[in-house]
Design a protein that fits this description.
Length: 246
């Protein structure tokens, strides 16, 4: 059963890693899927409908971040390898590149099945420590998983956006507040920088060292109400009502 988009691969592949004890999040620093377990290195999975040269190049680029990079593609109903190749040849190709390969077989009447064609080899290119640290920090700073891996046309819920939303939430019920006061409520050390940069236009400076919520900020609280509820800041209809009247 042919899929229409690589986003359909995200659910089965996410479940595959969660069954192995990993925490999984989508679209982290341009990586379709990132899985982590404890303090271990991140596993990166790039999703595509089929195995292509651009996908292989993308996988090689991800090796700058970690040695545990997988590609995940749909397994056609006929089960044959692409380009009239043998699966052993595909396995050898990925091995030489230091990449793992997963396939996802979709059925009409039962759940998709994820298979392992090969694991990443011990090939260890030179990693970018700075990029790896930023990837790991973004993963750990995010609360929950609100992005579907493989999507490109949706606003990403980044750790920065989450923090800005929390700041906006605490500003909605007051006329103004200082960065220091808001820092105590939000728990974010970078609260002042978020207010000053005002990346999304959600805040307004009123006088010296004080900020309030802008009209765009109020709209954002309504738009992201489900996210705020998941973060434990809103509770159902009662919480929505408070946003409508703020």
């Amino acid at each position: 059963m042919a899929i229409r988009s690589e986003t359909e691969l995200y659910g089965p592949v996410k479940h595959f890693w969660e069954q192995r004890g990993y925490e999984v999040k989508g679209e982290v620093k341009h990586c379709d899927l990132v899985a982590m377990k404890g303090d271990g290195p991140p596993i990166i999975v790039e999703l595509k409908k089929s195995l292509t040269v651009p996908l292989l190049l993308q996988g090689i680029d991800r090796l700058k971040l970690t040695g545990l990079v997988y590609l995940a593609v749909e397994l056609p109903a006929h089960g044959k390898a692409p380009y009239q190749a043998k699966w052993s040849e595909i396995r050898d190709l990925c091995g030489r590149l230091g990449l793992g390969l997963l396939t996802v077989r979709f059925y009409k009447t039962k759940k998709p099945v994820v298979g392992i064609v090969c694991e990443p080899e011990s090939y260890k290119p030179r990693h970018s420590k700075g990029k790896l640290n930023r990837l790991t920090k973004e993963f750990r700073d995010r609360l929950g998983d609100f992005n579907q891996g493989g999507s490109t046309k949706q606003k990403l819920v980044t750790a920065y956006r989450q923090k800005a939303l929390v700041c906006a939430f605490h500003l909605q019920s007051v006329e103004k507040m200082s960065p220091r006061e808001l820092k105590v409520l939000s728990g974010y050390a970078e609260t002042q920088r978020i207010l000053q940069n005002n990346h999304y236009g959600w805040f307004e400076r009123v006088g010296r060292g004080a900020y309030r919520l802008s009209p765009d900020g109020k709209k954002a609280l309504v738009e992201y109400a489900p996210l705020l509820e998941c973060l434990g800041l809103l509770r159902g209809e009662e919480g929505m009502s408070s946003l409508d009247h703020s």
